[in-house]
Amino acid sequence: MSATTTAGAATGAGWVPMTSEQREQFDTDGYLVLKGVLSPDEVRHYASVLDVAHATHPRAADGSLHLLSAVTSCPELADLIDHPATLPMVWSTLGWNVHIYHSHLDVHPTIRAPKPDWWHWHQDGGRQNREIETDPRPRLSVKLAYWLSDVSEEGRGNLTLIPGSHKTNWLPGPPKRDVPWPAPAGATQVKVDAGDVVFFDRRIWHARSFNYSEVTRRCVFLGYTYRWIQIRDAVAGLPSKPWWPKLNQVQQQLLGGVGVGDGDHHWGHYPESTPLYVALRERGLLDPSFPPLIP
């Protein structure tokens, strides 16, 4: 079964829940490729936003930029966080009591000289992977990767992952990250076009490959989790930003601006005042057969 699907049905037609076929693929493979989410004009617009960020923020020695807190750093990216073709993947998986806890934008120009071996393979979540004792670990979060560059060929800094590895707690790796070590069995470079989105389970084992091509790698990563998990992004003072009132209420929830300081609200005790719950209810998208979407 292919992990590639189309986003066309959702674009311009409101929110469409994850299909049973998509859910089966996601549960089996740990990721989905959503084709053609962004139009060519949107790709150019958001790529230009990343280019400005690349020109104005401190870069690594190799010229790359890994900038945390994507929307706080670049408010022009706000419309990506509740895109009608991608947000349904999030609430179809996690439900309505969610926010963005970790996000970043990446710009990786061409690498002119080979880099030394380095073990990049990981699951998202940091200490979650040391401190939660279940096998397999719980999903807890999902991530959207908006591709603003053509990485339809290998060697362009593609996201590399192991399909189906999201239910495997450990990979056999080197004793230290800088010890030369072969790629894990089944490692696959995901090849997508500019405008495509990769939706993946935070547990899938993945790594960034090096960009030895002439194509600059541009991507925006947005990680969603339950609101009872702390936000890692820099969100303090967001409601005082001049662009904050221009956001819709769902966007404000996703950026952590609803129920601030109220632990019960983040626990989901007040669905009637939680914007995403209200939006799903108004659209008839709450689902009593799926616990995260029970009315």
Automatic annotation (TrEMBL):
Pfam families: PhyH. InterPro entries: Phytyl_CoA_dOase-like (IPR008775). SUPFAM superfamilies: Clavaminate synthase-like. This is Ectoine hydroxylase. The gene is thpD.
